[in-house]
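Dear colleague,

Thank you for sharing your sequence with our group. We've completed the structure prediction you requested, and as agreed, I am returning the results in plain text so they can be pasted directly into your records. Please verify that the sequence below matches your submission; if there's any discrepancy, let me know and we will rerun it promptly.
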Amino acid sequence: MSDNAVARAQGRNGPRSGELEAARAASRAADLVRWLKVSIVAAVLMPVGFLGLGTWLAVAKAPGATLGAWSRDLALLAALALLLGLALLFACWMALRRIGRELAAEQSAGRESAQRARAEQSLYRAQKLEALGRLTGGVAHDFNNLLMVINNNAYLLRRMQEGAPVAPRLAAIERAVESGSKLTRQLLAFARRDVVNPEVLRLQDELPALIELMRPALGSRITIQSDLDPNTRPVCVDRAGLELALLNLAVNAADAMPERGQVEVSLRNARPGDTPGLEGDFVVISISDTGVGIPEELQDRVFEPFFSTKPAGKSTGLGLSQVYGFCQQAGGTVTLESKEGAGTTVRLYLAASAEAAKKKEAAPSAAPGDELHQRVLIVEDNDEVAETTRQLLEFLGCAAKRVSSGNAAVMRLERDAHAFDLVLSDIVMPGGLSGIEVMRYVQDRHPRLPIVLMTGYSNELQKLSPEDIVLLKPFSPQELAEALRRALARHLKANA
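Please find the predicted structure tokens below.
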């Protein structure tokens, strides 16, 4: 049997095995208690019987003797009976202590067995979701490159064919690219490779505004209440990811209550033992609804990508997987409790932060102007992405040259770095230097050159600082122009 099959078997049978062990422990304890009762009765009756038997034998031996004649024998028998009774009582007391120890050990073993089975089941589910996450991350990365080619070519065609009959078809292409981009963002969120900008937040200050954002998704037929503990500790999370997670949960709650209902959002510090399989301090956000609930046999699958209990065409199946990915990025986890006809409760466990929340700084304003007259070095391994990006830069007024790897970029800059005003580099490139390594080289050897990074996923983005400028593929021409202006403006300010 394979390891996965064993894990599945353990996941299915673990809790039942724990219950069986607990039942066996209770049965053994009951047997010991019955044995103890018999021992106590014996401890009382045996001395009395022994004394009675001795007295009968004494009388039978000397039937005419007076009480004084065999009182000494009776006293001796009484002393022996007393000693025997004390010995039996001591044995019962020792047995009672042994029963207590064995009962406690059996109960502890039963609890540990059940906890181990639950942990194994959680580990199997986490491993399965991690494997799916790696797969979806790779697919989304390649899909983003395709979307970028389509998007840039559609934009260039639209600008060359303003008012022509192809305009409606180009608009349809652009709408499809936008939908595909949202889909890949959700895939990358599940795969924990989406670009995140974590910041320390006081959720008791942030959630009121986010709850108001949830109201349109819930609709007027559903009421929403909140219970936010003002003493909740701050957390370090991505604000956009938190917003998307709550909106996904609001949409699910609305679908579960087609007529009317109620949603309750609560916030508090997690108590010790609340967080399954995690250690440390956590904050928990609970979202409860009064909807139709989820069947028990489906609850283990709800966080899988593309799995949905809704009718075909009503959902992408990525809502709860995005919530799962967000909680994993925040150093926590998510749990779901549901009962058919009695509603659903989803709890988001987020790692508490030791830092205090900071005020958000305003983003620097972009430099004015419609065209960019810069010489740009493009570092991109995908030929089609590189070509459309080059055309796009030329359309914006730039002169662009392209190299296909990080190593080639370093060699080109060593040869004629003065020929470029800016570097635009992809992050993930097979073999050689990555875009982040190219950026470190440029900052060290050619500090006069600003650099902008672009990526379809962000497995290495944790190495970057908030000041580094990153474009998410597929990006629009406006986003590209804005990023280049920001990099140039920041560079001019730093060297002023």
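Summary note from our side: The chain has four domains: 3-130, 139-190, 199-351, 375-494.

Kind regards,
the structure core
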